[in-house]
């Protein structure tokens, strides 16, 4: 959504069939790797969810706790977003700088992750809506700030790091 993390949460991407292998998962080496739990702190999140539409879990209820989990396996990374209260789960695999494609409910989209120092960024494009969503994941200690932008609407949501990934 989405910060692609939020992009996918925001556009409602469903579980994409990527399997997490606990034995080979790496959670160290990047400050954003690990499991993150949303806090009650957010800015303009409801307006952002509204722009993205009814497929966005936040449009249903922006107060649901959601969890973001990043890990590395071999030369690629994984992103998993869950919202347990509404049985929402999504998982994506990505390689830095390479564009990937996926489909949700018949809607195709592309996404690309990149890094700027310790900051993770994603650019997401939904061709059928001519909609580009930019996400930035910035970590400060045990807090992650996820800033999302679509058009002139911006949103920020904060997460706290879970000690157990």
Keywords:
Lipocalin, stress response, 165 residues, ten-stranded antiparallel beta sheet, globular, Calycin, SAHS5, disordered N terminus, mainly beta, signal
Protein architecture, described:
- Belongs to the Secretory-abundant heat soluble protein (SAHS) family.
- This is SAHS5.
- Keywords: Signal, Stress response.
- Residues 1-16 form the signal peptide.
- The chain is mainly β and 165 residues long.
- The chain has a single domain, classed as Calycin beta-barrel core domain (Lipocalin), CATH 2.40.128.
- The protein contains three helices and ten strands.
- It has a ten-stranded antiparallel beta sheet with strand order 4-3-2-1-10-9-8-7-6-5, with helices on one face.
- The two termini are 22 Å apart.
- The model is unreliable at 1-18 (pLDDT under 50).
Helix percentage: 10-25%
Strand numbers in spatial order across the main sheet? 4-3-2-1-10-9-8-7-6-5
Mean pLDDT: 82
CATH topology title: Lipocalin
Structural class: mainly beta
* Beta-strand fraction estimate: over 45%
How many strands?
A: 10
Gross morphology: globular
User: What is the CATH-assigned architecture?
Assistant: Beta Barrel
Radius of gyration: 14 Å
N-to-C series of helices and strands: HEHHEEEEEEEEE
CATH-level-4 superfamily name: Calycin beta-barrel core domain
Number of domains: 1
Tally of alpha and pi helices: 3
Low-confidence stretches: 1-18
Span between termini? 22 Å
CATH hierarchy class name: Mainly Beta
| Sheet having the most strands | 10 strands, antiparallel
């Amino acid at each position: 959504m989405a910060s692609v993390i939020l992009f996918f949460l925001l556009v409602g991407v469903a579980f994409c069939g990527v399997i997490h292998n606990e034995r080979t998962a790496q959670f160290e080496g990047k400050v954003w790797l690990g499991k993150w739990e949303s806090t009650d702190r957010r800015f303009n999140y409801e307006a952002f969810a509204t722009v993205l539409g009814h497929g966005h879990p936040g449009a249903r209820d922006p107060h649901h706790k959601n969890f973001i989990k990043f890990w590395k396996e071999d030369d690629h990374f994984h992103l998993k977003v869950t919202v347990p209260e509404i049985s929402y789960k999504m998982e994506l695999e990505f390689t830095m700088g390479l564009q990937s494609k996926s489909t949700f409910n018949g809607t195709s989209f592309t996404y690309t992750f990149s890094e700027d120092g310790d900051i993770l960024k994603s650019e997401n494009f939904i061709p059928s809506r001519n909609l580009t969503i930019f996400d930035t994941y910035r970590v400060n200690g045990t807090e992650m700030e996820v800033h999302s932008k679509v058009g002139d609407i911006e949103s920020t949501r904060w997460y706290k790091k879970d000690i157990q990934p």
